[in-house]
Amino acid sequence: MRLWNFWLNSFILASQYNPPRFVELLMLMVAIAMLIVAIILPDRPYLVLGLSLVVGASISILVREAIAPSPQTKVTRLTALLLLFISFYGFVDLLYTL
User: Fold this and answer.
1) Can you spell out the DSSP letters for 3-63?
2) Residue 16 CB: number of other CB atoms within 10 A?
3) Residue of 51, 52, 54, 77 lying closest to 64 (CA atoms)
4) Dihedral (CA of 37, 38, 42, 44) sign
5) Residue 41: half-sphere exposure toward Cβ, Cα within 13 Å
6) Number of CB atoms found within 10 A of residue 54's CB
7) Per-residue pLDDT of the chain (98 residues; tens, 9 = 90+)
8) CA dist list (Å): 25 to 1, 42, 56, 92, 95
9) Cβ–Cβ under 8 Å, residues 55 and 84
């Protein structure tokens, strides 16, 4: 029970300290879950939802880094751009399979 209390307090503290980064983290965690479900159950809605969440989170990261740069700006921007390109590739591939 102590472990769950620690995780709950950590999530609450993270959401209060930096809310945009916390929302981006939640979006990416749900996107990962949706993409895993899309691998297990090959349904298009799970794949589209997962890719959409990745696109939204990566655009949010790029906007946040443009407004208030962090110490690791280059790595964060590169990762967000990589996620964005992979997501767009997934959408294009999904369109060609229709």
Assistant:
1) HHHHHHHHHHHHHHH-HHHHHHHHHHHHHHHHHHHHHHS--HHHHHHHHHHHHHHHHHHHH
2) 9
3) 77
4) positive
5) 8
6) 24
7) 777 888 888 878 878 888 888 899 899 999 999 999 999 998 889 999 999 999 999 999 999 999 988 888 899 999 999 999 999 999 998 888 87
8) 24, 25, 11, 25, 28
9) yes
- Tokens representing 13 are 């503290």
The amino acid sitting at 73 is: T
Identify the residue whose tokens are 């399979």. 97
